[in-house]
Amino acid sequence: MSEQQKKKQHKGGRNPKANPSIHRYVFRLTDEENAKFLSLFEVSGADNKAQFVTSLLFSKPIKSVKVDMAAMDYYTRLTALFGQFRAVGVNYNQVVKILYRNFSEKKAAAYLFKLEKQTAALAKLCRDIVELTKEFEAKHLGKSGGK
Predict the structure, then answer these.
(1) 115 and 52 part of one domain
(2) Total domains, the chain
(3) Looking at the domain assignment, is residue 11 inside a domain?
(4) 66: Cβ–Cβ under 8 A, 6 or more apart, which residues?
(5) Is residue 1 included in any domain, yes or no?
């Protein structure tokens, strides 16, 4: 059997890479240089240090991810508030059904009038929240308010 036929008959293991990285270089850093290197590596988001170094050497773009904790906290609280709004909507529907079932038409209408006033105040609050969110995104996240 020829050498090529033996390679084709091989059934196990990992498929060989088309262009394997076989050349290795070693360099040494001081403690200060190493600390700076590690901080740059952390910011880059690269999978491994070799990938990070080669991207620096060959001027490939390096991705850096910054997490804005204030924005994350704002959106977490906004999500919780949205959940409360949904709960209010469910309760609103239940209250209307109960009013019509348990009270006379006139008394139910009086209670609904009060409920409508509170709903209008809640709708105004919702509009204010939307405006504040647009303002927050424009100032702190650099997003346009057009979305």
Answers:
(1) no
(2) 2
(3) no
(4) 43
(5) no
